[in-house]
């Protein structure tokens, strides 16, 4: 029996949320599924709650009777500041604060590889490297990781931040041969984070066992995450684009996010 049995998933109607909903069903005593969008009717062992995470009272209500939160809710891509600020920053604060105040002791936070997007693809990046966000979205995930650190250190919560790569059924381009995470590996990763014995604060890359992975993931072994899928099976479909040039979408880990609104100088990004 897992130590955590009553799990809240925010953003449960999204792509990752729907996959987790199916993948975690039956594994825990109770799954509370929340989203701002309508959710499919609850199955046995599930509860569905439509809630806006920018409303603190609604978030506090979500925490009642829960012992672990998987926080996916928010805008899952680059967006204007007036969408990122409430949905990714204020809402994430609400989730951490309400969790703490209501006795939730573990949060699995959906961070992103876009926290380290402006590192060069030739460089292998670990969890100890300084953050290098490539977008307002990436900055919001850095904020979430910092909140995680705060609530772990100040309040003793157990926090896992998952720097999720490219969640897809299959890799869809050359970059994703490195960054892809399959649905079944995503389910395994989140389950390991929920089920792991006590830990303080962990950052993990959410990535499959890709031959071309460029992220070191020392905490994967610690929580027992053993990805089963490898994007290399799809490599023949995606020839390498010419590298060493001035295209930020090719030169950096964050790929397309690095090119959005870009008017910097690729040559000056060491
Ligand atoms: C993410 O964090 C995004 O949520 C998703 O839309 C993808 O763009 C993914 O990263 C990626 O880097 O491929």
Features:
270 residues, alpha/beta, Rossmann fold, two-stranded parallel ribbon, 9 helices, 9 strands, binds D-galactaro-1,5-lactone
Structural description of this entry:
The chain is built from nine helices and nine strands. The chain has a seven-stranded parallel β-sheet, with helices on both faces. Helix 1 (15-24) crosses helix 6. The mean pLDDT is 97. By secondary structure, it is an alpha/beta fold. The protein has one domain (6-238): Rossmann fold (3-Layer(aba) Sandwich). The chain is 33% helix and 16% strand. Residues 76-77, 112-114, 164-166, 179 line the site of D-galactaro-1,5-lactone (15L).
Write the layout of secondary structure elements.
Elements: E1 6-10, H1 15-24, E2 30-35, E3 46-50, H2 56-62, E4 68-71, H3 81-101, E5 106-112, H4 136-155, E6 158-164, E7 166-167, H5 176-179, E8 180-181, H6 183-195, E9 201-206, H7 218-223, H8 248-251, H9 256-259
Parallel strand pairs: 1-2, 1-4, 2-3, 4-5, 5-6, 6-9, 7-8
Bound molecules: D-galactaro-1,5-lactone.
